[in-house]
Amino acid sequence: MTADVQHHPHRRRFRGRGYFQRVGPGLITGAADDDPSGIGTYSQVGAAFGFTLLWSTLVALPLAIAVQEATARLGLSSGQGLASLIRREFPKWVLYIAVVLVVSANSFNIGADLGSMAAATRLIIPVPHIVLVLLFTAGMASLEVFVPYHKYSRVLRWLCVSLLSYVLVLFIVKVQWADVVRGLLVPEFTFNKITIAALIALFGTTISPYLFFWQTSEEVEELREHGTTRLSPEHWGGHLRAMRGDVMAGMTSGVFVMFAIMVTSAATLGQAGITQIGTAEEAAMALEPLAGSAAKYLFAIGIVGTGLLAVPVLAGSTSYALAETFGWREGLSLKMSQAKAFYMVIVGSMLLGLGMNMAGLDPVRSLYWSAILNGLSAPPLIVMILILSRRKHVMGEHTSGRVSTTLIAVAAAVSSVLPLAYFFAK
C-alpha cells in the first residue's frame, strides 16, 4: 500500500528554528551512539593512547554515515525492517546468526550501561549499586512499555547536551593542538593486541549493530504511522535529502563528541598518569578542569542521560530483530495489548541486563568490553547491508551508488580485518 502522504513531514524542513522537534530517527541514532559504553570507551582510549588514535574519528565518520544512511534507505525503500529483509533474502541460518549476534551484543551492552548508570549515580547519591540498577531497569522498562518512545526521547535528548562539557574542557585545559592535528592527520598504529583491541572498541561503539536494526525499523514504523508502507514517488526526492541530512547530523554529532571525549581524556587523565580507568570517579576526573568538585555531577548527568536514551534503543533493537524473525506484531507506537511478545522481549532484555549486574558485572570496565563485542558482531551484518542495498528488487530505483557502496565495503573490510589482525598480533 502506498499512500499519498509525506512521511515524517516535520523532517522535511531541516533548517531553521525548532530543530529538535523536526529531526527524525537519525538524531536519536546519533545520540544513542554516544551511550555510556561510548563514553567509557572514548575516555579509556584517550587516557591510554593520548592523541595517537584520533585519526580513527576521521575514518569512522564517513563509514558510520554510509552504513546508517543505507539502513534508513532500506527501510524506506522496502517498507520492512532489517531482520525481515535478511529472512526474505538469505538462508535461515544466516538470519539466525545475525539475530544471535545482535541479541548477544545488545544484552551485554544493556548490562554494562545499567551498571555504569548506577555507578555514576552513586557519585552523588550513596545508594547501594544493585538498588539503583533495579530502579533504572524498572523505570526504563515502564517508560518504554507505557509511554511512546518518540515523546520522552525528545526530553532525553536535552540531557545529552551535558556531553558538550567535554568540548568546553578543551578551552580550559592546556591542549597541545599541534599534537591533536598530528594525531588526526598522521595515522599512528602499533601492531599489537592492545592497540588493535582499542580500534575494535572504537569502531564497534561507533558503527554498532543495534543501530542498524533500530534505524531501519524506526523508518518503517514512521511510514506505518502515516498509513503507508512506502513513499509515493513524488515525495521521494525531498524526503531522501532530509533523511540524509538527518542521518548525517546525528552521526556527525556523535563522532564529534567521540573526538572531544578522547582529546579531553588525553589532556586530563592521560597527562595525570591515569591510563587505566577502573572507577566512575576516575572517569569523572576528565571534567574537573571545567567543573571542579561538581565534575561528578556533570559526569553523572551525561552517563544517566545517554543511558536513558540508549538502553531503550538497545532493548528496542533486540525486540525488532526477534519480532521480525518470528513474525510477531511489532512497533513502539503500538500498545502492550497489541504487541505483547514485542514488549515482553524489551522487558526481558532489560531483566537480562539486570541479572548480569546481580552476577557481579564490573560497571566500568564492562563498557569497554561491550564496545569490543559490538565490533566483533558488526562485520557480517555490514556485509548483509551492503548486499541488500545493491539489490534492485529490494531497493527499486534507490540502490546504493558508487560512493555509498565503496564506503560500506570499506566499513565491512575494516571491521573484518581488525579482529583477524588481533589474533596475529603480539
TrEMBL record:
Keyword Transmembrane helix: yes
Record membrane topology: Multi-pass membrane protein
Provenance organism: freshwater metagenome
One GO term (biological process): iron ion transmembrane transport
PANTHER family: NATURAL RESISTANCE-ASSOCIATED MACROPHAGE PROTEIN 2, SOLUTE CARRIER PROTEIN FAMILY 11 MEMBER
Any single GO CC term annotated in Swiss-Prot or TrEMBL for this entry: plasma membrane
InterPro entries: NRAMP_fam
Keyword Transmembrane: yes
Lineage: unclassified sequences, metagenomes, ecological metagenomes
Spans through the membrane: 45-67, 93-111, 123-143, 155-174, 194-214, 247-269, 297-322, 342-361, 367-389, 401-425
NCBIfam families hit by this protein: Nramp_1
GO molecular function annotation: cadmium ion transmembrane transporter activity; manganese ion transmembrane transporter activity
Signal peptide positions (record): none
Name of protein: Unannotated protein
Coiled coil region boundaries: none
Keywords: Membrane, Transmembrane, Transmembrane helix, Transport
Subcellular location: Membrane
